[in-house]
Write a structure and sequence with these properties.
With 144 residues, this protein is of the alpha+beta class. It contains three helices and five strands, in the order H-E-E-E-H-E-E-H. Helix 2 (55-76) crosses helix 3 (122-140). 24% of the residues are buried.
């Protein structure tokens, strides 16, 4: 599967903000300011599950996911990192990374559908990007 055939699913385009292109994945921010909620989408066409990736891409996805999780927990100082690839609504393979806190609105339940989303304001988005992107670019080595 060639990367140039990859297109981000319309649901992800609608609900997320694109942040970075990594070696394998696009890094997205779920446009819901209630949770630090990020999504990795491998830039491979017609993939719905991790096992469909070749071995090297599986390893790269695990590396990107682990590094992202560690950075997010350091920056946002959460209680728990939730990582999930469900795919029941959006079939394109994507891994959710959600920093959770014991006092967040949905704790300890999953965040999906718990309450309506609240979009980031431009100020909130700028603040988040200034706080997070330098660490992500350093560790995850953004493609140029």
């Amino acid at each position: 599967m060639l990367e140039n055939q990859f297109e981000l699913h319309p649901l992800l385009k609608r609900d997320c903000i694109e942040l970075l292109d990594l070696k394998l994945s696009k890094l997205l921010l779920m446009n819901d300011c209630q949770y630090p909620w990020f999504i990795l989408v491998p830039k491979r066409a017609d993939i719905t599950d991790v096992y469909q990736l070749d071995w090297q891409d599986q390893q790269q996805l695990l590396n990107e996911s682990s590094a992202l999780s560690e950075i997010l927990m350091q920056v946002f100082m959460g209680k728990k990192m939730n990582v999930a690839a469900i795919g029941n609504v959006c079939p394109q393979l994507h891994l959710h990374h959600i920093v959770r806190y014991e006092d967040d609105a949905a704790w300890p339940k999953p965040v999906w559908g718990y309450q309506p989303t609240i979009a980031y304001s431009s100020e909130q988005l700028t603040e988040l990007q200034e706080k997070l992107l330098p660490a992500l670019k350093l560790v995850l080595k953004q493609e140029e």
